[in-house]
Prior knowledge:
The longest helix is centred in the N-terminal third of the chain and has 20 residues, at 2-21. By secondary structure, the chain is α+β, with helices and mostly antiparallel strands. Mean pLDDT is 86; it is low at 16-23 and 247-255. The protein folds into 2 domains: 22-140, no CATH class; 169-260, no CATH class. It contains 5 helices and 8 strands; from the N terminus they run αββααβββαβββα.
Amino acid sequence: MKNLRLFLIALTMMNFVLISCTKDENTETTDDENAVVSEVAQTVTQDLYSRTATTDYTETATDLEDYLNGDFCFTFNYPITLLYNNGTQVVVNDDTQLLDVISTMTASLYITGISFPFDVNTATGIQTINNETDFLNLINSCDSDNDGNPNYTDDDDDNDGINDNDEDVNGDGNEFNDDSDGDGIPNCLDEDDDNDGVPTSEEDNDHNGDVSDDDSDNDGTPDYLDTDSDNDGIDDANDNDADGDGEDDEQEDDNDNGGD
Ligand SMILES: [Ca+2]
Ligand SMILES: [Ca+2]
Ligand SMILES: [Ca+2]
Ligand SMILES: [Ca+2]
């Protein structure tokens, strides 16, 4: 009788352990001999983790796709198999499951590898990543401003003088879903955020080295996001006097009144 009771207690505990190990009943574990430790897999998952592991965590699968595309220029072509640092493996079938894996990582349980080969979606189509070298080349080639510093380590992906974090206009923590001029390129990757023909880096009209503090017409929208910087009703792209000094820009050398 006593043995049966102990057996039942043990069974209950085993069930508890099993249930608590599988947070998402949709994800399955596997034993794939091609799953190996990968520094790039750690880099990618830690980057995603640092973006999602916040107290006000509200990220969606769409945000996760934005982060992958924005920081690494790819999304996964599922399924993929990820390796945990404790040796277990998980099959990931979609972005929702990946978000679940990422957002439940801890300091002691995290992703340390991946199973090669796997497929990714890039701007040029589906690409097969056969090994760690392919994977490293993939993320290092994601360098939107071609300054040699890949997006995932670059604070200013488009080199327009405004840090990526400060290009998150709607303040939701995702800088890749802000596209002020609606041209399909997010502000943090757009060299001309308001599409007025003047690159953002050249909209520093007071020449103090800070593009973000220039608001010629004081309407609350900085010039680099303002399609009509002098608020005269004529878009800057068609305005011969965008700095509003009364002189036709084509007639003057200093068409932004910066003093040079
Ligand atoms: Ca760069
Ligand atoms: Ca920028
Ligand atoms: Ca844009
Ligand atoms: Ca502009």
